[in-house]
């Protein structure tokens, strides 16, 4: 069952929302909002999957190579050297 909500949006977003419906891209304002929410949730899920993969890679590297012997200052300096 749909949950009825009331939201306030600024004028530029209201115009964009209106255009989406008028151009028949979507059937209603609700459809646009629900699609945007679905897209954002997919992005968040993909970000979470990427973060988990990076954590697993880091754990595997630590198991294989051990922890870094570099100090925080050494790491900062190395990062600055890469930039410049």
UniProtKB/TrEMBL annotation:
The keyword tRNA-binding does not apply. SUPFAM superfamilies: Ribbon-helix-helix (SSF47598). InterPro entries: ParD, ParD_sf, Ribbon_hlx_hlx. Signal peptide: none annotated. Coiled coil: none annotated. GO terms for biological process: regulation of DNA-templated transcription. Transmembrane segments: none annotated. Keywords: Toxin-antitoxin system. This is Antitoxin ParD.
């Amino acid at each position: 069952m749909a949950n009825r909500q009331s939201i306030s949006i600024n004028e530029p977003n209201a115009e964009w929302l209106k255009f989406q419906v008028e151009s028949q891209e979507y059937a209603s304002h609700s459809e646009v909002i629900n699609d945007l929410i679905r897209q954002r949730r997919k992005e968040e899920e993909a970000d979470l999957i990427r973060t988990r993969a990076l954590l697993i890679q880091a754990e595997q590297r630590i198991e294989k190579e051990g922890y870094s012997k570099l100090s925080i200052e050494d790491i900062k300096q190395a990062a600055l050297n890469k930039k410049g």
